[in-house]
Amino acid sequence: MSTSPVLVIRHGAVAYDRPVLRDVNLTVTSGEVVAVLGANGSGKSTMIRAALGLVPLAEGEVELFGTPLRRFRERRRIGYVPQRLGAGGGVPATVGEVVGSGRLARRGFPGRRTAEDRQAVAGALAAVGLTDRANDPVASLSGGQQQRTLIARALAGQPDLLVLDEPTAGVDAASQEAFADALRDFVARGGTVLLVAHELGPLQPVITRAVVVHDGVIAHDGPVPHPSGHHAEPGHDHVHPHAPQDPPSIWGRE
Ligand SMILES: Nc1ncnc2c1ncn2[C@@H]1O[C@H](COP(=O)(O)OP(=O)(O)OP(=O)(O)O)[C@@H](O)[C@H]1O
Ligand SMILES: [Mg+2]
Questions:
Q1: Which domain holds residue 57?
Q2: How high is the pLDDT of residue 28?
Q3: Would the CB of 176 count as within 6 Å of ligand 1?
Q4: From the CB of 44, is ligand 1 less than 6 Å away?
Q5: Would you say residue 206 lies in a domain?
Q6: Which ligand is nearest to the CA of 212?
Q7: Is residue 38 in contact with ligand 1, taking CB distance under 6 Å?
Q8: Where is composition skewed (Basic and acidic residues) in this entry (predicted)?
Q9: Can you tell me which atom of ligand 1 is nearest the CA of 21?
Q10: Which terminus in the chain has less CB density within 10 A, N or C?
Q11: Which atom in ligand 1 lies closest to the alpha carbon of residue 46?
Q12: Does any domain span residue 144?
Protein backbone atom coordinates (compact mmCIF):
# COMPACT_ATOMS: atom_id res chain seq x y z
CA MET A 1 0.00 0.00 0.00
CA SER A 2 1.22 3.47 -0.85
CA THR A 3 2.04 5.73 2.04
CA SER A 4 2.17 8.87 -0.11
CA PRO A 5 0.44 11.84 1.43
CA VAL A 6 -2.73 12.96 -0.29
CA LEU A 7 -1.56 16.57 -0.55
CA VAL A 8 1.77 18.29 -0.02
CA ILE A 9 2.56 22.00 -0.35
CA ARG A 10 6.26 22.81 0.00
CA HIS A 11 7.44 26.37 0.46
CA GLY A 12 4.38 27.60 -1.42
CA ALA A 13 4.09 31.29 -2.22
CA VAL A 14 1.32 33.08 -4.09
CA ALA A 15 1.20 36.68 -5.23
CA TYR A 16 -1.63 38.49 -6.97
CA ASP A 17 -0.78 42.17 -7.29
CA ARG A 18 1.07 41.74 -4.01
CA PRO A 19 2.33 38.70 -2.04
CA VAL A 20 -0.56 36.87 -0.37
CA LEU A 21 0.93 33.58 0.82
CA ARG A 22 4.51 32.89 1.74
CA ASP A 23 6.47 29.78 2.65
CA VAL A 24 3.41 27.60 3.16
CA ASN A 25 4.23 24.03 4.13
CA LEU A 26 1.34 21.62 4.49
CA THR A 27 1.02 17.86 4.34
CA VAL A 28 -2.36 16.15 4.46
CA THR A 29 -2.36 12.38 4.83
CA SER A 30 -5.04 9.84 4.11
CA GLY A 31 -7.97 9.84 6.53
CA GLU A 32 -7.32 13.28 7.98
CA VAL A 33 -9.98 15.97 8.26
CA VAL A 34 -8.00 19.20 8.25
CA ALA A 35 -9.68 22.52 8.98
CA VAL A 36 -8.09 25.71 7.65
CA LEU A 37 -8.95 28.59 9.96
CA GLY A 38 -8.09 32.28 9.98
CA ALA A 39 -9.39 35.79 9.63
CA ASN A 40 -10.98 37.21 6.48
CA GLY A 41 -8.37 37.89 3.85
CA SER A 42 -5.66 35.86 5.58
CA GLY A 43 -5.20 33.64 2.52
CA LYS A 44 -7.26 30.51 3.27
CA SER A 45 -9.03 30.30 -0.07
CA THR A 46 -5.84 31.18 -1.90
CA MET A 47 -4.06 28.31 -0.17
CA ILE A 48 -6.57 25.64 -1.14
CA ARG A 49 -6.91 27.07 -4.65
CA ALA A 50 -3.14 26.92 -5.06
CA ALA A 51 -3.20 23.32 -3.80
CA LEU A 52 -5.62 22.47 -6.61
CA GLY A 53 -3.73 24.38 -9.29
CA LEU A 54 -6.46 27.02 -9.59
CA VAL A 55 -4.01 29.83 -8.83
CA PRO A 56 -0.34 29.58 -9.81
CA LEU A 57 2.43 29.29 -7.27
CA ALA A 58 5.07 32.01 -7.45
CA GLU A 59 7.40 29.71 -5.53
CA GLY A 60 7.38 26.21 -4.16
CA GLU A 61 5.59 23.07 -5.26
CA VAL A 62 2.45 21.02 -4.80
CA GLU A 63 1.99 17.26 -4.99
CA LEU A 64 -1.36 15.50 -5.18
CA PHE A 65 -1.43 11.79 -4.39
CA GLY A 66 2.35 11.71 -4.78
CA THR A 67 2.34 13.33 -8.23
CA PRO A 68 3.62 16.85 -8.93
CA LEU A 69 0.66 19.08 -9.75
CA ARG A 70 1.78 19.77 -13.32
CA ARG A 71 1.69 16.04 -14.08
CA PHE A 72 -1.45 15.26 -12.08
CA ARG A 73 -4.25 13.97 -14.32
CA GLU A 74 -6.60 12.15 -11.93
CA ARG A 75 -8.82 15.10 -11.21
CA ARG A 76 -11.75 12.82 -10.54
CA ARG A 77 -10.02 11.86 -7.30
CA ILE A 78 -10.73 15.36 -6.00
CA GLY A 79 -14.08 16.89 -5.16
CA TYR A 80 -14.01 20.68 -4.77
CA VAL A 81 -16.74 22.93 -3.43
CA PRO A 82 -15.81 26.59 -3.90
CA GLN A 83 -16.60 29.31 -1.41
CA ARG A 84 -19.73 30.73 -2.95
CA LEU A 85 -22.28 29.53 -5.44
CA GLY A 86 -21.89 31.63 -8.59
CA ALA A 87 -24.73 33.79 -9.83
CA GLY A 88 -27.68 31.63 -10.79
CA GLY A 89 -27.28 32.00 -14.54
CA GLY A 90 -30.96 31.35 -15.01
CA VAL A 91 -30.60 27.64 -15.69
CA PRO A 92 -33.50 25.90 -13.95
CA ALA A 93 -31.47 22.82 -12.98
CA THR A 94 -32.97 20.46 -10.46
CA VAL A 95 -31.13 19.28 -7.37
CA GLY A 96 -30.83 15.81 -8.93
CA GLU A 97 -29.29 17.24 -12.11
CA VAL A 98 -26.73 19.29 -10.25
CA VAL A 99 -25.72 16.35 -8.07
CA GLY A 100 -25.70 14.11 -11.16
CA SER A 101 -23.22 16.48 -12.82
CA GLY A 102 -20.75 15.34 -10.18
CA ARG A 103 -20.61 12.03 -12.04
CA LEU A 104 -19.60 13.54 -15.37
CA ALA A 105 -15.87 13.20 -14.80
CA ARG A 106 -16.40 9.47 -14.29
CA ARG A 107 -18.22 8.90 -17.58
CA GLY A 108 -16.96 8.96 -21.11
CA PHE A 109 -18.72 11.68 -23.06
CA PRO A 110 -21.53 11.22 -24.02
CA GLY A 111 -21.52 8.31 -21.62
CA ARG A 112 -24.75 6.77 -20.51
CA ARG A 113 -25.89 7.02 -16.95
CA THR A 114 -25.28 3.67 -15.28
CA ALA A 115 -26.84 2.03 -12.25
CA GLU A 116 -23.64 2.95 -10.44
CA ASP A 117 -24.16 6.63 -11.33
CA ARG A 118 -27.72 6.49 -10.03
CA GLN A 119 -26.61 4.82 -6.82
CA ALA A 120 -23.85 7.37 -6.24
CA VAL A 121 -26.26 10.26 -6.76
CA ALA A 122 -28.87 8.70 -4.48
CA GLY A 123 -26.23 8.06 -1.83
CA ALA A 124 -24.92 11.62 -2.01
CA LEU A 125 -28.42 13.10 -1.78
CA ALA A 126 -29.17 10.93 1.23
CA ALA A 127 -25.87 11.89 2.86
CA VAL A 128 -26.85 15.56 2.88
CA GLY A 129 -30.53 14.96 3.60
CA LEU A 130 -31.92 16.16 0.27
CA THR A 131 -33.42 12.96 -1.13
CA ASP A 132 -36.92 14.40 -1.12
CA ARG A 133 -35.80 17.54 -2.99
CA ALA A 134 -34.15 15.79 -5.95
CA ASN A 135 -36.75 16.98 -8.46
CA ASP A 136 -36.99 20.55 -7.18
CA PRO A 137 -35.26 23.43 -8.98
CA VAL A 138 -32.09 24.44 -7.14
CA ALA A 139 -33.33 28.03 -7.15
CA SER A 140 -36.24 27.04 -4.90
CA LEU A 141 -33.87 25.91 -2.14
CA SER A 142 -32.54 27.89 0.81
CA GLY A 143 -28.90 29.00 0.81
CA GLY A 144 -28.01 26.19 3.17
CA GLN A 145 -29.76 23.60 1.01
CA GLN A 146 -28.02 24.94 -2.11
CA GLN A 147 -24.72 24.55 -0.32
CA ARG A 148 -25.67 20.97 0.58
CA THR A 149 -26.48 20.38 -3.10
CA LEU A 150 -22.93 21.39 -4.04
CA ILE A 151 -21.51 19.14 -1.33
CA ALA A 152 -23.64 16.27 -2.63
CA ARG A 153 -22.35 16.94 -6.15
CA ALA A 154 -18.77 16.61 -4.88
CA LEU A 155 -19.66 13.44 -2.92
CA ALA A 156 -21.39 11.91 -5.95
CA GLY A 157 -18.07 11.90 -7.79
CA GLN A 158 -16.78 9.56 -5.06
CA PRO A 159 -13.52 11.46 -4.72
CA ASP A 160 -10.65 10.41 -2.48
CA LEU A 161 -10.03 14.00 -1.38
CA LEU A 162 -12.80 16.47 -0.65
CA VAL A 163 -11.81 20.14 -0.56
CA LEU A 164 -14.46 22.53 0.72
CA ASP A 165 -14.21 26.29 1.11
CA GLU A 166 -16.48 27.43 3.96
CA PRO A 167 -19.07 24.71 3.42
CA THR A 168 -21.07 25.79 6.45
CA ALA A 169 -20.89 29.58 6.16
CA GLY A 170 -24.39 30.98 6.49
CA VAL A 171 -25.81 27.47 6.74
CA ASP A 172 -28.52 26.64 9.27
CA ALA A 173 -27.78 24.36 12.23
CA ALA A 174 -29.70 21.38 10.80
CA SER A 175 -27.68 21.56 7.57
CA GLN A 176 -24.45 21.81 9.57
CA GLU A 177 -25.34 18.66 11.51
CA ALA A 178 -26.27 16.84 8.31
CA PHE A 179 -22.98 17.92 6.77
CA ALA A 180 -20.97 16.74 9.78
CA ASP A 181 -22.63 13.32 9.47
CA ALA A 182 -21.90 13.21 5.74
CA LEU A 183 -18.23 14.00 6.41
CA ARG A 184 -18.01 11.27 9.05
CA ASP A 185 -19.43 8.81 6.57
CA PHE A 186 -17.08 9.98 3.82
CA VAL A 187 -14.02 9.53 6.05
CA ALA A 188 -15.24 6.13 7.29
CA ARG A 189 -15.18 5.04 3.65
CA GLY A 190 -11.55 6.06 3.28
CA GLY A 191 -11.89 9.72 2.26
CA THR A 192 -9.66 12.65 3.22
CA VAL A 193 -10.96 16.18 3.83
CA LEU A 194 -9.47 19.66 3.66
CA LEU A 195 -11.95 22.38 4.53
CA VAL A 196 -11.95 26.09 5.25
CA ALA A 197 -14.13 27.31 8.09
CA HIS A 198 -14.65 30.31 10.30
CA GLU A 199 -16.64 28.56 12.99
CA LEU A 200 -16.41 24.80 13.36
CA GLY A 201 -19.63 24.35 15.32
CA PRO A 202 -21.01 20.82 14.78
CA LEU A 203 -17.97 20.01 12.64
CA GLN A 204 -15.60 20.28 15.57
CA PRO A 205 -15.68 16.58 16.61
CA VAL A 206 -14.99 15.48 13.02
CA ILE A 207 -11.89 17.66 12.61
CA THR A 208 -8.60 15.85 13.28
CA ARG A 209 -6.26 18.82 12.80
CA ALA A 210 -6.38 22.56 12.41
CA VAL A 211 -4.20 24.86 10.32
CA VAL A 212 -4.45 28.54 11.10
CA VAL A 213 -3.50 31.00 8.36
CA HIS A 214 -2.54 34.42 9.58
CA ASP A 215 -1.54 37.15 7.18
CA GLY A 216 -0.31 34.75 4.50
CA VAL A 217 1.62 32.32 6.69
CA ILE A 218 0.68 29.21 8.63
CA ALA A 219 0.61 30.36 12.24
CA HIS A 220 -0.54 27.08 13.79
CA ASP A 221 -0.68 23.46 12.64
CA GLY A 222 -1.95 20.93 15.15
CA PRO A 223 -4.88 20.36 17.48
CA VAL A 224 -7.98 22.48 17.06
CA PRO A 225 -7.37 25.65 19.08
CA HIS A 226 -9.76 26.33 21.92
CA PRO A 227 -12.58 28.65 21.02
CA SER A 228 -12.48 32.03 22.69
CA GLY A 229 -15.02 34.61 23.76
CA HIS A 230 -18.58 33.56 24.51
CA HIS A 231 -18.13 30.41 22.44
CA ALA A 232 -15.78 29.07 25.09
CA GLU A 233 -18.33 29.34 27.86
CA PRO A 234 -19.63 26.08 29.26
CA GLY A 235 -23.04 25.32 27.91
CA HIS A 236 -22.49 27.13 24.66
CA ASP A 237 -23.48 24.35 22.36
CA HIS A 238 -23.21 25.92 18.93
CA VAL A 239 -26.68 25.06 17.81
CA HIS A 240 -27.51 28.54 16.59
CA PRO A 241 -26.70 29.60 13.04
CA HIS A 242 -23.92 32.14 12.87
CA ALA A 243 -24.37 35.34 10.97
CA PRO A 244 -21.79 35.66 8.17
CA GLN A 245 -20.44 38.81 9.77
CA ASP A 246 -19.65 37.05 13.05
CA PRO A 247 -16.00 37.60 13.85
CA PRO A 248 -13.81 34.50 13.58
CA SER A 249 -13.41 33.56 17.22
CA ILE A 250 -12.29 29.98 17.00
CA TRP A 251 -8.60 30.56 17.44
CA GLY A 252 -8.46 32.72 20.43
CA ARG A 253 -6.71 35.71 21.70
CA GLU A 254 -4.36 34.49 24.41
N1 LIG B 1 -8.01 37.10 -7.58
C2 LIG B 1 -7.43 37.95 -6.71
N3 LIG B 1 -6.75 39.03 -7.15
C4 LIG B 1 -6.15 39.89 -6.29
N5 LIG B 1 -6.17 39.74 -4.93
C6 LIG B 1 -6.84 38.70 -4.45
C7 LIG B 1 -7.51 37.75 -5.29
N8 LIG B 1 -8.08 36.79 -4.51
C9 LIG B 1 -7.79 37.14 -3.25
N10 LIG B 1 -7.05 38.26 -3.20
C11 LIG B 1 -6.52 38.89 -1.98
O12 LIG B 1 -5.67 37.95 -1.35
C13 LIG B 1 -5.85 38.00 0.07
C14 LIG B 1 -6.26 36.62 0.55
O15 LIG B 1 -7.52 36.31 0.02
P16 LIG B 1 -8.26 34.94 0.29
O17 LIG B 1 -9.51 34.96 -0.50
O18 LIG B 1 -7.32 33.84 0.08
O19 LIG B 1 -8.55 35.07 1.85
P20 LIG B 1 -9.49 34.20 2.79
O21 LIG B 1 -8.68 33.88 3.99
O22 LIG B 1 -10.06 33.07 2.03
O23 LIG B 1 -10.63 35.23 3.18
P24 LIG B 1 -12.20 35.01 3.53
O25 LIG B 1 -12.24 34.48 4.93
O26 LIG B 1 -12.79 36.36 3.42
O27 LIG B 1 -12.75 34.04 2.53
C28 LIG B 1 -6.87 39.08 0.33
O29 LIG B 1 -6.19 40.25 0.62
C30 LIG B 1 -7.60 39.22 -0.99
O31 LIG B 1 -8.08 40.50 -1.15
MG1 LIG C 1 -11.96 32.53 1.53
A1: 7-83+94-232
A2: 98
A3: no
A4: yes
A5: yes
A6: 1
A7: yes
A8: 230-240
A9: 14
A10: N
A11: 18
A12: yes
Strand order in the sheet with 19-28: 19-28, 7-15, 59-64, 67-68
Q: Strands across the sheet with 161-165, in order? A: 78-81, 161-165, 192-196, 33-37, 209-214, 217-222
Q: How many structural domains comprise the chain? A: 1
pLDDT at 110: 56
Which CATH number characterizes residue 151's domain?
3.40.50.300
Cis link prior to 56 (omega < 30° from 0)? no
Ligand 1, atom 10: closest residue by C-alpha: 16
- How many CA atoms within 13 Å lie on the side-chain side of 65? 16
- Residue 245 falls inside a structural domain: no
Structural domain contains residue 238: no
pLDDT of residue 232: 42
Confidence (pLDDT) at 101: 81
* Intervals of the chain under pLDDT 50: 86-88, 229-254
Is residue 43 in contact with ligand 1, taking CB distance under 6 Å? Answer: yes
Ligand 1 center to 94 CA (angstroms): 31
